[in-house]
DNA sequence: ACAAAAGTGTTTAGATTACACCCATGA
DNA sequence: TCATGGGTGTAATCTAAACACTTTTGT
């Protein structure tokens, strides 16, 4: 303890890159900062790590406060520690990213925080190094989607293969051949075909699928070639 | 500033997983902790983040103090922030991993720190969560080696394809077919064949290669299938 | 000449890609 | 019946893997 006391202490924050999927686009939850400096500028949702919690717990707490959701996918992105990254004080920030189903989140809570879902193709300028946090989080999402089938986190319980492909096209910002994508996904043996069809998009209708029991989090083989 | 003051501050440390390659084994630099608690127990090399430096800079500082090396490969692994991870005080630690050429490091400095190179197949118990830090760092190294040719960081300037294969076998803890490995590496078009041979291992001798100019850090395609 | 390590070639199996084609259905 | 998306099949290409084979050189 004595030996530690010669060293400085720092504020430690977590900032969350909260990602969802809606209208064939990946969206990011942002809010206009409510205090100076940079009041009114767009910011990720964040907060400070308290004495009795780990950073993981702090991130989960912030996620629950702002979206009402618990036990959702949440992972570290990187730490950001430039001494002057926040002009007001020395704050070391640990960036996290979360994948949530927009259809499940608590709209009231989001409104209370003054937060908005913004398409990642139309992002405004963000404060501090939050742009970098987002970019690193997107790379992490692409890596995750390349190895595990992340329909479960971003899509509703039931989804069609077309919806899954559109999701992957949004994540990777490129198109996939419909036939080949379908075959690849089915060959992974993690999807269960349901009896119902989604008839909202075509006359013929597309069968719904869902992730098989037990395959929720299990990683599978490589899906998308870099 | 006022708004920040209601939040606690914490000690922030960096711990470095310093990896090298020698005698066909990956080695980790460890030292016996010199103060209580856990005095004498094996620990990664670490230190506290000061007011005027980023965590990256702190890690580079510690690396220079302990090995004498500068401008070497150094990357974040993860943050560790369980409130009681250090029984003495709340310390949030940012883990880094470094790849160094053992043939270049300053043996005096290492001795002064009481540090030793330990083969990763014979690691002792480490304090706190340092074992986890090492394991995550090893995964990161495997990912890096799978995408970029990391001979440059761990091997001498010149190396034979056999030496490179032995390095990859140490990193991935499995064997590679000599013929296929050679063909794969050469097909990447990042190696330059030199005129000299290494004659220490065989009568015939094996040609030395080196990484082509400009390919130092550039990532290439996938090398090792998971 | 031969042992031993360095390096090359060949064959097979599987995955990826592009793209043509068939199917089901409501208007 | 036909337009429209949903879904299947196939051939060409590329890659990984297994393994047999040739080369070089000191003794």
Descriptive keywords:
homodimer, DNA-binding, alpha+beta, Arc Repressor Mutant, subunit A, seven-stranded mixed beta sheet, Nucleoside Triphosphate Pyrophosphohydrolase
Topology summary:
The structure is a homodimer of 226-residue chains.
Chain A: E1 9-22, E2 25-32, E3 42-43, E4 45-48, H1 55-67, E5 73-80, E6 91-99, H2 107-112, E7 116-119, H3 130-147, H4 151-154, E8 159-160, H5 161-172, H6 178-187, E9 191-198, E10 206-211
Parallel strand pairs in A: 1-6
Antiparallel strand pairs in A: 1-2, 1-4, 2-3, 2-7, 5-6, 8-10, 9-10
Chain A binds a DNA duplex (27 and 27 nucleotides) through α6.
Notes on the protein architecture:
- The structure is a homodimer of 226-residue chains.
- Chain A is an alpha+beta fold and 226 residues long.
- Chain A has two domains: 4-147, Nucleoside Triphosphate Pyrophosphohydrolase (Alpha-Beta Complex), CATH 3.90.79; 151-211, Orthogonal Bundle (Arc Repressor Mutant, subunit A).
- Helices cover 28% and strands 29% of the residues of chain A.
- Chain A contains six helices and ten strands.
- Chain A has helices spanning 55-67, 107-112, 130-147, 151-154, 161-172, 178-187, and strands spanning 9-22, 25-32, 42-43, 45-48, 73-80, 91-99, 116-119, 159-160, 191-198, 206-211.
- In chain A, the strands form two sheets. In chain A, strands 1, 2, 3, 4, 5, 6 and 7 form a seven-stranded mixed sheet that branches. Chain A has a three-stranded antiparallel sheet with strand order 8-10-9.
- Chain A binds a DNA duplex (27 and 27 nucleotides) through helix 6.
